[in-house]
Design goal:
This protein has 804 residues and is an all-alpha fold. Strands 1-2 form a two-stranded parallel ribbon. Keywords: Repeat. GO terms for molecular function: protein phosphatase regulator activity.
Length: 804
């Protein structure tokens, strides 16, 4: 008989390809068989290197699939096989990365990622052996397929090797590949992984080296590259500074939303809510800290750096009630001194921005000179070309003859919004006479803080919900997000655009803060009444998170009516409400919460009676709801639901409901009269039930009540133990089996039931003796011994009938 090493030598040189494949597949088993002999292990590793030179690609691919498993084995046996991986296995992986066969390259790339994830490679080996090979594979003379694959693997390896190695070895080549004019596949790979690369590099390197390339990719002539940029926009924004996010990325995203390609616009709108969520900062008053309504205050500003216009405005700050906005302006901006109206373009004459913006005070000449000097330095930095106001107007004029086309109409709407955003710059120069630094971009925070004496002016009667100015995110982005509920968007962009809006709405609400909920309220109500049930289902699954953001007052006023409508919706929508029923109700006031006691029974009725998971989820939620209500309410409203679920057709629902019953016993234990009444009802309905499953359920509830300490042992001995012992004469063996388990594994484990003080001790011993002489061998076994490996749930449910 051949030894493992002899069998390896026999088949490794076989002319049959399948034999050599089998050798590669059995290498790990061979190593395990000879793991105690260090010399033989080294011999096997040397033969692996020989097998790696096989001319058949399938053999090499099979070998590469086994490399990670062999590496793990070598790591576990490192004392006996030192340096096995770095000497024998790693060179094979590195060599296969540039293999001519596509299958072998793909397999080696997957193996490399596994080795890095499992931390089986030394950092020095990665930097000196792997990274240079990957960089060489992206050289201009490499084939297109190899270059694309290498760039993809570089983007995946970068987060694993860290910032230092990425900046020194990968970043220059990545920037070069972003500008590859010949192969758009390479640019597409770079665009798809741009966010991950920015996250690894971060800081100044990302803004100085990567962002200019990102601007170029967003204007690429291939729509697939632009689509990839839109999909990773959130991660790029997360790695950028707040100023870059506001001044550059927001306008760049608007250009993607107005892209000529429908697929790019679709990806941009899907990422819009995620991009808006990156504007939330922990140091600003827009962030939510998930505190109670009584403890939450808008005054969370520790610094003024992240709030536009240089001042943090509280949600509860009184606004100017006078309709004349001029009275709220400081003397420097009064129209009497410098009338701006004559010089404002007609289309911008009634721009809401002029009436909603907190005026910026005059800046000292010295500070103005410093700001102008900084602007001159910024002008020298490379930046992506942006369309000015004149170019936007020309584009709109060229598209107007084709306005009947829905796609063209969508582009005109987006360009009009961008035109309004640029109007904020041109109109402010004459309207408010701001210095150059203050009017360069409407979203740059003001360099000086306003005094507290300047009030905030509002004119809610003149603006619609989407024109309400807020200072958290650029207004143009918010307007585009609010337009996602427009029916025309479903025709021109994406049929699922409303669902994407609903999915990201909690993140947008968290970013804006509860003080700006009025900006989203109409949109949320529109989504809640959407004809597509998937949209309403998405809102139902997240309504508890939105309630946590808004607090109990806004929740009671605006979310409770929508929550009530979801309760009467389709089962696909109701399940979202049901899964987080406790999370939502606990945020409501006690009086409002109590009203839902009357509606809980509606969850027992479903569109499909076979939807048993719906009822199982109801039982689990009722367990949580017990803490929200008093013992009397639990007895009057939740007790009937629990007893109804205990008789469900499906076994899984019943066993979950038995735990609910035991928790109700715990809740009612504080009121003796309610407890005695409920225990008597359990004995009547279950212990004396005509169905054996009901009598078995009674034994299981008794077992749970003792193990979970739901009631005192005196109460159990008085009310539940006598009827429990009567089950010893039950004609069904399954009932007696569970009774024997309950007595042996639960009751007799308590010293209380073994002492002579207990009046039921004699009856308990006689019942146990009777079960030990039972005709059924399972009953006799569980009554005689105490299986140490047996658990409650496994034993109890093993004696049930089928699922139905």
């Amino acid at each position: 008989m051949l030894t493992p090493l002899g069998r390896l030598d026999k088949y490794i040189s076989s002319e049959n390809i399948f034999n050599r494949q089998m050798v590669a597949r059995s290498l790990l088993d061979t190593l395990r068989a000879i793991s105690e002999d260090e010399r033989e292990c080294v011999s096997v590793l040397e033969r692996i290197d020989r097998l790696a030179d096989d001319s058949e690609p399938t053999v090499r691919a099979e070998l590469m699939e086994q490399i990670p498993h062999i590496a793990i084995f070598c790591q576990e046996n490192r004392p006996s096989i030192p340096f096995a991986f770095s000497k024998y296995l790693l060179p094979i992986v590195v060599r296969y990365l540039s293999d001519q066969n596509n299958l072998v390259r793909k397999t080696s790339q997957a193996a490399l990622l596994v080795l890095l994830e499992q931390e089986l490679m030394e950092r020095g080996d990665v930097e000196s052996l792997v990274c240079p090979v990957l960089v060489d594979l992206t050289a201009p003379d490499s084939s297109d397929d190899v270059k694309t694959e290498a760039m993809a693997i570089i983007c995946k390896v970068a987060p694993m090797v860290g910032r230092d190695v990425t900046e020194r070895l990968f970043l220059p080549r990545f920037c070069e590949m972003c500008c590859d004019c010949r192969m758009f596949h390479v640019r597409k790979v770079c665009a798809a992984n741009f966010g991950d690369m920015c996250g690894v590099v971060g800081g100044e390197a990302a803004e100085e080296l990567l962002l200019p390339r990102f601007f170029q990719l967003c204007s690429d002539n291939v729509w697939g590259v632009r689509k990839a940029c839109a999909e990773c926009f959130m991660t790029v924004s997360s790695a950028s500074s707040p100023d870059v996010r506001r001044t550059k990325l927001s306008s760049l995203f608007i250009s993607l939303i107005s892209d000529p390609s429908r697929w790019v616009r679709q990806a941009a709108f899907q990422s819009l809510g995620q991009f808006i969520s990156t504007f939330a900062g922990p140091c600003s008053n827009t962030g939510q800290y998930f505190r109670d309504e009584a403890q939450w205050t808008g005054d969370t500003n520790d610094s003024n750096d992240s709030v536009p216009f240089g001042e943090q405005i509280h949600a509860d700050e009184p606004c100017c009630a006078d309709a004349d906005a001029q009275k709220c302006l400081p003397e420097e901006t009064q129209p009497s001194s410098r009338p701006p109206v004559q010089e404002i373009p007609e289309q911008e004459l009634f721009n809401s921005f002029h009436y909603w913006r907190t005026p910026v005070p005059r800046i000292a000449p010295e500070l103005e000179l410093e700001l102008e000097l900084e602007l001159e330095l910024e002008d020298r930095r490379p930046s992506a070309p942006a369309l000015d106001r004149k170019q936007l107007q020309e584009l709109i004029e060229n598209l107007e003859p084709h306005i009947d086309d829905p796609d063209v109409k969508a582009q005109v709407d987006v360009l009009t919004a961008a035109l309004r955003a640029t109007g904020l710059d041109s109109g402010l120069e004459d309207a408010f006479l701001e210095p150059r630094a203050a009017r360069s971009n409407p979203f740059i925070p003001s360099c000086t803080a306003l005094t507290d004496s300047i009030p905030s002016c509002t004119a809610l009667t003149t603006l619609s919900h989407d024109a309400v100015l807020q200072d958290v995110v650029p207004q143009a982005l918010l307007e585009q997000y609010l337009s996602m509920t427009d029916p025309s968007r479903a025709q021109t962009v994406d049929m699922e655009i409303a669902r994407h809006c609903a999915f990201s709405l909690p993140g947008v609400a968290l970013t804006l803060g509860r003080q700006n909920w009025h900006c989203l309220r109409d949109t949320y109500e529109t989504l809640a009444s959407d004809m597509q049930w998937k949209v309403r289902r998405t809102l139902a699954f997240s309504i508890h998170e939105l309630a946590l953001i808004l607090g109990d007052q806004l929740t009671a006023a605006h979310l409770v009516p929508i929550f009530n409508s979801f309760l009467k919706d389709l089962d696909e929508v109701r399940i979202g409400v049901l899964k987080h029923l406790y999370d939502f109700l606990k945020l409501l006031h006690q009086d409002t919460r109590r009203k839902y006691l009357y509606q809980l029974q509606e969850f027992l009725v479903t569109d499909n009676s076979r939807n048993w998971r719906f009822r199982s989820e109801l039982a689990e939620q009722l367990v949580l709801l017990l803490e929200l209500y008093s013992a009397q309410d639990v007895h009057d409203y939740l007790r009937p639901l629990a007893l109804c679920l205990c008789t469900d057709r499906v076994s899984s629902v019943r066993w979950t409901s038995y735990r609910l019953v035991s928790e109700i016993i715990r809740k009612l234990s504080s009121c003796s009269s309610l407890l005695v009444s409920f225990l008597g009802e359990l004995v009547e309905k279950f212990c004396h039930s005509q169905k054996w499953s009901g009598r078995q359920a009674f034994a299981f509830v008794c077992q749970l009540s003792i193990e979970e300490e739901c009631l005192s042992l005196d109460q159990f001995s008085e009310h539940l133990l006598p009827p429990l012992l009567q089950l010893a004469s039950d004609p069904v063996p399954n009932v007696r089996v569970l009774l024997a388990k309950t007595l042996r594994q639960t009751l007799l484990e308590r010293e209380y039931f073994l002492s002579s003080v207990n009046c039921q001790q004699v009856a308990l011993e006689h019942t146990l003796v009777a079960l030990q002489t039972d005709v059924d061998k399972d009953v006799k076994y569980f009554a005689s011994v105490h299986p140490g490996s047996t658990r409650l749930n496994e034993d109890a449910m093993s004696t049930t009938s089928s699922t139905y």
